[in-house]
Specification:
47% of the residues lie in helices and 14% in strands. The chain is built from 8 helices and 7 strands.
Length: 267
């Protein structure tokens, strides 16, 4: 089924694995996709891949923490198409940006605030600018945010990203309440640890090193909480995002949607 036929979708931070998978699924379901990131070469390569597969995609260099760049880009998208149907921001934070995994008593305020500024700050900027153009064009579109299950986990030495994840989820509910009257639905997807992503594989390696245990042991410990033998993949995350952005996805408005196949240790 083609969920997004003739829709106009924008994907921020599209150089990342999850955002790339979401953009690919949007295209597969019929959307014209605008890909943007600071790494122009990466989004150009993804756009070429989507186009080669029969989809419609354009790439641009946009810093998802720069409101002027965000506004200029979305203004052009709306000018070219007369509407804006879907926006997804896949921004994430690298392990090194948090100063590793320092105990909360040792982490600096800068290290603690880094995920808050980058993750929650970027979602705030891209969402509110997108909402402004959706209201102007009466697009009644979908704004999808990205969060992590750390918001509902109990894991030591990750205070900054845990707080930022919880903030994104609170922001999602507030924006859904504010913009629902304009027909705009707002949701956040919360993937589990997607093993085929560069970020998670790097996170696991760094965590295993920090804990002094083999990588395989850490993966086994994580998978021990799986409810099923099936684990989430990038393709499943992308397909979930496409469904949520569709007309049927309206039933999940304001919600945080776990994409983890079920975990015993997540509330």
């Amino acid at each position: 089924m083609v969920h997004l036929k003739d829709k106009v979708a924008v994907v921020f931070a599209a150089s990342g694995d999850i955002a790339g998978a979401v953009a690919t699924s949007f295209s597969r379901h019929g959307a014209k996709v605008y890909l943007c990131a600071r790494n122009l070469d990466a989004v150009k390569a993804l756009a070429a891949e989507i186009t080669a597969g029969g989809g419609k995609a354009e790439a641009a260099s946009v810093d998802a923490l720069n409101e002027t760049e965000i506004d200029d880009f979305l203004k052009k998208v709306v000018s070219d198409n007369g509407k804006l149907d879907v926006v997804f921001n896949g921004i994430g934070v690298g392990y090194s940006e948090m100063g590793g995994r320092p105990p909360t008593t040792m982490a600096t305020l800068k290290e603690f605030m880094a995920p808050m500024e980058k993750i929650c700050g970027s979602q705030f900027l891209t969402s509110r600018v997108a909402a402004k153009y959706m209201m102007q064009t009466q697009s009644e579109g979908t704004i999808l945010l990205l969060t992590t299950a750390l918001s509902r986990s109990k894991l030591a030495n990750v205070a900054g990203i845990t707080a930022a994840s919880a903030a994104v989820e609170g922001l999602t509910r507030v924006m859904a309440a504010e913009w629902g009257g304009n027909g705009i639905k707002v949701m956040a997807i919360c993937p589990g640890a997607i093993m085929d992503t560069t970020r998670i594989s790097g996170w696991i390696e760094a965590s295993a090193k920090h804990l002094g245990i083999p990588v395989e042991q850490l993966v086994t410990q994580y998978q021990a909480f799986d409810l099923l033998k099936t684990t989430p993949t990038l393709k499943l995350v992308g397909e979930t995002a496409a469904f949520l952005a569709s007309e049927t996805g309206v039933v999940f408005n304001s919600h945080i949607i776990d994409v983890d196949c079920g975990k015993l240790n997540i509330l």
